[in-house]
Amino acid sequence: MKRKLFVFICLPVVIFLTGCGSKAEEDDIRGKSLPDYISLTAMIVFVEDNFIGTDLMRGYSVSNDNFDPEDYLVEAYRIQLTNETKFIDAETGEAFYFDFSDQASLFEDENLGYIYDRDGREVEVKTEEPFTPAPSADRTDYILSSHEFLPIYTAKEVTLYPLTYESFTFRHAVKDTSNVLMIVETEDYFSEPFYEEYDRLWKELDSLSENRSYIDMYVMDTAGLEQYSLPENIDQFPYYFVFDDGDVALHTDNWEEVTTFFSHD
């Protein structure tokens, strides 16, 4: 178990992919953000495809058994971010910029989470260049596995919408794997008692891993949790989310329920 602390071309289809995206303005790109695994200075914006439409969570249902790249069309874009890119919090209207040339200050910026924790966040992008919707074909793999050869635009302005329960699930749930997300209060994060408790719980999970090929465990503090609009009010900590095969299988403040889940599966 890995130990950690702390995704044929026919005219009707083309019309569908270029006409159904919910864009506030004709020249905006609006969709769900995906991280660019190469650099912080780029992001992927997924609009829709002909396998799952706009429902990014359903992307976990796509596998080698039901995916044929020859029939695949996706509208998605690689968005380059610069020091001049204006970021806007859609809830507060606050505008801010990042200095991508100074990594030391970048990683100390309190707003970094807006672009670092961006899996599944809804965004709207105004581009420096004239924007033309363009579905991509002739791809080698599904969009969640491969971001190569997408149309590239430079972001003039990026509006960031609140993180939702869907984006929370998308970020932590992975098809064909199981993991536990432990929520701890911010003031307890990385304290010595926290490390001791984490180590104890991790060893318990490790002893249950023979029932599964893979169980992972992550940690998030309450400040990180507050970014998401979760349907339930959580006020007892530590709190645990169990993700199994791409979905939330259990959430509880009772660790015994977590171990029971893995013991009986």
Automatic annotation (TrEMBL):
Record keywords = Signal
The residues the entry assigns to the signal sequence are 1-24
Protein name, per record: WG repeat protein
